[in-house]
Amino acid sequence: MLSKAQISLITSLQHKKFRTVHGLFIVEGIKSVTEFADSSYKIQKIFTTDQACAKLLKIPQTIKPIALSENDFNKISALKSPQGALALVEIPEPQHFDIESLKNKHTLVLDGVQDPGNLGTIIRTAEWFGIQQIICSKDTVDAYNPKVVQATMGSLARVKLHYTAIEELVQQQEIPTYGALLEGKSIYDIDFGKQGLIIMGNEGNGIRPELIPSIKTAVTIPRIGLAESLNVAVATTIFCSEIARRQLTKAE
Asked: pTM, whole model, 2 decimals?
């Protein structure tokens, strides 16, 4: 049985302030908990129901899941339909960002993405297309927000995220920079080469004006229908897919 203090701690991690104070974030769901347990992240505790515990097959023997009743588990879960598995995971110390890591690969740069579902989908999409790291502006939603973690379906355990002042980063780059803008060259006419920064903007405002002068190539997804705009996660998927398509074509 959970104490009130334990319940209070776990539920407080829904908020960034308390995630920072405690250095912990929440991972929910059998698949996601399994993915993080099999990664470099450090698991502090895992709470499960008896039914879910039987499905956690890849949990290291050093981690002993804490069994809870369905009623107690529901008190700590943030999901409408809890899956019976929740892990408290340590937030890793910020790593030094090596500018050399941008060379010979494509990297996503997110400028003020605010919706947790969008960020989670972008992280999951990045992993699907082999993009290993994402650079986020400091005002992009926290990657350890439970809704972000949930939407990644475990991909956050493998894709590296860095939060930094992206204006300075983009201005200092010698490698190509591509910005997703309404006015630009068609994405289907762009040769993305073997490296570059792919810059995606805020859901409502796009890429911030002060960043645009530093973008070497403005890229647009041609509109055929009447929709006013594309969701940033959808647009990012199209960019990742087109980059991957061209790389695969060259490899043939």
From this structure: 0.94
